Amino acid sequence: MSAMTGTDTTAVDGASLIRDGKAHLGIEFGSTRIKAALVDADGRLLGSGAHDWENRYVEQNWTYGLDEVWGGLQTCVAALQTDVEARWGVHLERLGGLGISAMMHGYLAFDAQGEQLVDFRTWRNTYTTTAAARLTQAFGQNIPLRWSVSHLLHAVLEGEEHIERLDHITTLAGYVHWKLTGRKVLGVGDASGVFPIDSATGSYDATMVAAFDALPEVAQMPWKIGDLLPQVLPAGADAGSLTDEGARLLDPSGSLQAGAPVAPPEGDAGTGMVATNSIRPGTGNVSAGTSAFAMVVLDRELTGIREEIDLVTTPAGDPVAMIHTNNCTGDLDAWLGMLGELPALMGLEVDREEFYRRLFGHALEAPADCDGLLSYNYLSGEHQTGVATGRPLFLRGQDSGLKLASFMRAQLNAAFAALACGMKVLLEQEKVPLTSLFAHGGIFRTEGVAQQVLADALNTPVAVGDTAGEGGAWGMAVLAAFTALPEAERGAGLAGYLEERVFSDAQVTTRDPEAEGVAGYASWLERYQAGLAVERLAGEVLA
Fold it and tell me: How confident is the model at residue 9 (pLDDT cuts 50, 70, 90)?
């Protein structure tokens, strides 16, 4: 069996590993769920837990309260402990390693006393247009709206009251790590969504640091950008250990002990690369959730500035082209929730997972062009397609056939549409080589369906492994296990560890693009792009 699988527990004595403090915990704060995964040193899943949460739109800002961060984390860890006891009959008291991951980017700002200065500003906020454009011009590199440095400059340009009291800024993963360990650090992958990274040095690009400090508005500030940013660390580096206070934040009952080494905190993009073994040049992955992103590890520089493409890094520091979309499964989930009311209305009891599986499978019975049906899944603005304010829309022509299969296929097509627009630039215009593309996220749990739609959308083979539904929490747990390894056991670094131990006999299924599906999706996407004018107008006129 593969070391990736979440059900292979026969080859390992999980109870002894957990009892002896040799299990490694990864926690990821996703957009809608906080997940925990406990693994052994080879990545075998020993237990899991989860807690649902949602962002809130407060005073034109997408945010989560810090009390929700800690309450959700504790609930998630408690669910993990319950699962571990049910599986193994032991209570989780000691950890071999720990790692925190979270949605990348955004803005968490603190003063010298460690007090939060403004509400958390997540990746979903797109009001940083002017700041991002200024930075792109100053740096000679595309700087996305959601990056932390864009939010920082936006606050400076707006003359926000808190800006002169800044002591440090960080991401959500960096914040949680700081509170658990006392260390203000970031893994290089997460840091690459804060400020551009120089892959040669493994830290913030010194030329761009100087360019930022030289901006007239910034030059008047009582700080330099280098004083505000967390220290950058590669995968496996010493990022501190779990303190007594941190252990109580994870487990208020007091049973979880301090002392475990903690991996550099990473973003969800980095953990997605680990979870799909996509950290060597020519490999790539797609992570699909509330948002979606494709990561392709580069073997050369791009030809120039591409507004569709962000330049970030792997957790080991190698350059990566990132295609990020603000919207993916959120609107699909809403439609599924509504359709799920129908059985109850008829007085029927159905298994929700089976109901969704049948709906997904039915979608493949429709042509890839969806019989003329169009769906725009924009719960928020979408920079990939130039949409400032999202309004979910479903459109059809007068002669379009409104059938359930075509409707479901349109929802799946829409989930990947903005991503497909960006990937066309990377693969067709930049001609970046891509030997393999792995996908993970809950949308791929129904075998072969979303996987086939994505393969047709990108005209690229798409592979899915056993952890398609586990995702980033599992990837972060693997990074924690790697960090806990003695230097002598690390072999050829992170890439070697993944290939030789974690994915040595990994079982994956691959779907190749089908000619009819590729042509149908291309036709559908052409109409989708033509209809974006309607989506933009909806955002302007429908409050």
Answer: very low
The pTM for the full model equals 0.82
Domain count, the chain: 2
CATH number at residue 113: 3.30.420.40
Q: What is the pLDDT of residues 255-302, one digit of tens each?
A: 999 999 999 999 998 998 998 888 988 899 998 888 898 999 998 888
User: HSE on the CB side for 238, CA within 13 Å?
Assistant: 4
The pLDDT-based confidence of 505 (bands split at 50, 70, 90) is confident
CA distances from 337 to 83, 125, 333, 344 (A): 27, 25, 6, 12
Segment 221-252, tens digit of pLDDT: 999 999 999 999 999 999 999 999 999 999 99
- Are 407 and 527 found together in one domain? yes
Give dist(CA 229, CA 361) in Å, integer: 47
Question: Is 407 part of any domain?
Answer: yes
- On whether residue 85 sits in a domain, the answer given is no
Query: What is 287-318 written as a DSSP string?
Result: EESSSEEEEEE-SS--SS--TT-EEEE-TT--
Please, are residues 495 and 279 in contact by the beta-carbon 8 Å criterion?
yes
Helix H or strand E encompassing 183: none
Note whether 224 and 334 are same-domain residues: no
CA distances for 202 relative to 46, 198, 343, angstroms: 33, 6, 54
Q: Are residues 411 and 521 in the same domain?
A: yes
- The Cα–Cα gap between 114 and 92 comes to 31
The C-alpha atoms of residue 540 and residue 543 are separated, in whole angstroms, by 7
Residue 501 inside a domain? The answer is no
- Lookup: tokens for 40: 């052994």
Q: How far apart are CA 112 and CA 170, in angstroms?
A: 14
Close Cβ partners of 133 (under 8 Å, ≥ 6 residues apart):
none
